[in-house]
Amino acid sequence: MKPWIKWTTVAVSMAIVAGVGLRLVASNKAKKEVLESQQAALKVPVSLELGAADLVRANTVELTRTLPVSGPIKAVSSAFVKARVAGELQGLTVREGDMVKAGQVLARVDSTEYQARTRQAQQQAESAKAQVDIARRSFENNRKLVDQGFISQTALESSSASLAAAEASYRAAMAGVDVAAKSLEDTVLRAPISGQVAQRLTQPGERVAIDARVLEIVDLSRLEVEASLAAADSLGVKPGQTAQLTVEGSAQRLQARVARINPSAVAGSRSVLVYLSLEKPEGLRQGLFAQGALAVGGSRTLALPVSAIRTDKPQPYVQWVQDNKVAHQTVELGERGEANGVAMVSVKGIPEGTQVLAGAVGALRAGTAIKNAAGSN
């Protein structure tokens, strides 16, 4: 190969390499400029606009300490009508929902057998009374004969004993009359209380046994909630304390008051039953489930709504506005309760009057700029 051709090839190759290098340098420079411009755009501070509803103020309030309570609604007065004697049930016409009054005849048990037993007892008593009359006349006659010396004193004593035995038999027969009359009276089933029929457990024509349940009657004019509390929580509960309750499926708030507290804990669970009397039970039914909060005390303390407390860090904290920027401040939480119907919690670590971001705002990065925050620090 000729020398000039060789050197020409080398020069062309070097020129090509140099051109490619220059293009790479220009491309890298352009990418760097784009990256720097993007980073500069990210460094531009973003301002968040907040309204008055997005801020809550830490204030000293009367914090009402409450306990969650729940339980079934029960009638204070309820009763089962039971058969006191065995026999065929007759005349049962009331059904669930019917109103009854105390003393009202609800049904009867066939009384044929009990009427016969009553007559039998009365006749036995009459027979015993006749025996008493005979024994008394015999005793009177023997006493006269003893006075006249015709019979001995032993015969008189025997006659006296016979009279005493006859009188005892008569008293026993009269007691039998009372038992038979009571059984006859028990064939009539009456309402023990006024109220409504909740259950009809037997049908007319059925043969019922003694103590068989026939009807259940409940008085809905007085209702109460049977709430179960832990032993530790029950120590602060006293009669007269008030509670706010709601019934399952209804938004209506009910007023209740602690009527009484069971003196014994439930075996096994060691829970304590507390009975809350409903002040206006209109429209409620036995068996519904109620839940709510029982006020057991109160204190005046610095508090915030529970929703304003953030817990996405190891320690609870709040987001507050400082120099128109978001700042994070760790707080110490105390007892919980209610103030003006809002769930609140006692806090330490921030001064009174601090404006804290409401829970609906969500988590924000510390240093986020805030504008148009009403009353911001």
UniProtKB/TrEMBL annotation:
Transmembrane segments: none annotated. This is Efflux RND transporter periplasmic adaptor subunit. Belongs to the membrane fusion protein (MFP) (TC 8.A.1) family. Residues 225-295 form the CusB-like beta-barrel domain. Signal peptide: none annotated. The keyword Glycoprotein does not apply. SUPFAM superfamilies: HlyD-like secretion proteins. Residues 111-138 form a coiled coil. It holds the Pfam family Beta-barrel_RND_2. Residues 79-209 form the Multidrug resistance protein MdtA-like barrel-sandwich hybrid domain. InterPro entries: Beta-barrel_RND_2, MdtA-like_BSH, RND_pump_MFP. It comes from Rhodoferax mekongensis. Keywords: Coiled coil. The keyword DNA-binding does not apply.
